[in-house]
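Field log, afternoon session.

UNIT: design team B
ACTIVITY: writing a sequence onto a fixed backbone
BACKBONE:
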């Protein structure tokens, strides 16, 4: 009888052996993004967060573009054409640094670039995508309005015909990258239904005042968009999208990145708690030697690595063309909720130090409160899954 192979040594950083599911190319992408974040974000992020700024955003965007992280899973037009799993790993590493950095990449690639790539004309793709992939042009995606978040069908922003032109009027709210963007993908109501428009932000009537006084995503540019009779040529409309299906498909693509990204924030918080538990002494020994602390660490590790395994499973399905929107809702609902719980538990391990920006835990916890809400609240994803499970629509 042949001998069973000797199991690999238990790895506290990878207790389920998930790295064995990754290809050498996957690992190279992960390690490249991790190294960039360690050099360009982690030494400065606490200060950026405390100041409520993301300085040098254009330089960071160009560096991310040079790394192939913008529009990463798109093909052609200067995009990297990476796999969904590789894009997910990049999102995890970026959000392990800060949710604001991952949001910059998600909005650029999975919303603005994805909308143009999937629904745009060849002329629109050639005009915008290469510069966006390189980080030379930052994009934003404008769907949410001051009075319409979870129900975008109620949007009031409208576009009317004036000869061959379009005239765009309305307001959008909570728009990541808005005040630094060179191009905005704006969704508006028309006589023919909801349409998407590619809007250069330099046009008269377009303004993007930055939203201040945030206590979450502080190292991220968040803006209101005001569209006061912005005149656009006929070819500004995205020809491939009519109705809400267009923007909702874009959001689904971005949510997939969040499934991975939330686990990055959770991992950073867990790692901080684990390191602290090994070195912080109370009652004559490290607190990691006490049963209650070990129970917390074990529970956090279980949910963290289950979440990463779920994200990888969804990535494999996306690469195979088999990922359904309901499955993305499953991942977003589970992973963001569990990430917040991990951060909160990690904070208790650090005690009073858990509220200090000397450690990443509170920063990640407050960021995740925004991630929990944007691109589908908990309640909306519960209803998506509820409808899928029962066949009954509870939205209205």
């Amino acid at each position: 009888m042949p001998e069973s192979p000797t199991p690999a040594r238990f790895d506290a950083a990878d207790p389920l052996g998930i790295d064995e599911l990754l290809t050498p190319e996957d690992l190279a992408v992960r390690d490249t993004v991790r190294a960039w974040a360690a050099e360009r974000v982690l030494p400065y992020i606490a200060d950026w967060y405390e100041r409520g700024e993301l300085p040098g955003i254009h330089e960071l965007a160009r560096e991310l573009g040079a790394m192939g992280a913008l529009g990463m899973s798109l093909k052609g037009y200067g995009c990297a054409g990476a796999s969904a799993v590789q894009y997910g790993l990049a999102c995890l590493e970026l959000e392990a640094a800060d949710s604001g950095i991952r949001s910059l990449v998600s909005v650029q690639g999975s919303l603005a670039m994805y909308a143009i790539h999937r629904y745009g004309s060849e002329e629109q793709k050639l005009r915008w995508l290469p510069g966006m992939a390189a980080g030379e042009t930052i994009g934003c995606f404008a769907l949410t309005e001051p009075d319409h978040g979870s129900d975008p069908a109620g949007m009031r922003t409208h576009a009317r015909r004036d000869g061959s032109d379009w005239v765009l009027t309305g307001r959008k709210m909570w728009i990541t990258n808005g005040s630094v963007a060179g191009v905005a993908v704006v969704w508006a109501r028309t006589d023919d239904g909801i349409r998407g428009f590619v809007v250069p932000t330099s046009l008269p009537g377009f303004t993007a005042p930055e939203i201040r006084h945030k206590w979450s995503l502080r190292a991220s540019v968040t803006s209101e968009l005001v569209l006061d009779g912005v005149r656009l040529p006929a070819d500004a409309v995205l020809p491939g999208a009519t109705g809400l299906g267009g923007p909702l498909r874009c959001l689904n693509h971005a949510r997939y990145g969040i499934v991975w990204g939330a686990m990055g924030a959770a991992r950073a918080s867990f790692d901080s708690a684990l390191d602290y538990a090994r070195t912080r002494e109370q009652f004559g020994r490290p607190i990691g030697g006490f049963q209650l602390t070990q129970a917390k660490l074990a529970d956090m590790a279980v949910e963290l690595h289950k979440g990463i395994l779920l994200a990888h499973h969804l990535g494999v399905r996306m690469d195979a063309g088999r990922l359904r929107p309901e499955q993305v809702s499953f991942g977003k609902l589970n992973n963001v909720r569990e990430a917040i719980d991990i951060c909160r538990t990690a904070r208790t391990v650090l005690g009073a130090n858990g509220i200090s920006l000397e450690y990443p835990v509170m920063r990640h916890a407050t960021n995740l409160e925004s991630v929990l809400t944007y691109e589908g609240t908990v309640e909306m994803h519960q209803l998506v899954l509820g409808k899928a499970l029962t066949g009954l629509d509870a939205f209205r």
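LOG NOTE: The CA atoms of residues 94 and 164 lie 43 Å apart.
NEXT ACTIVITY: expression trials, pending approval
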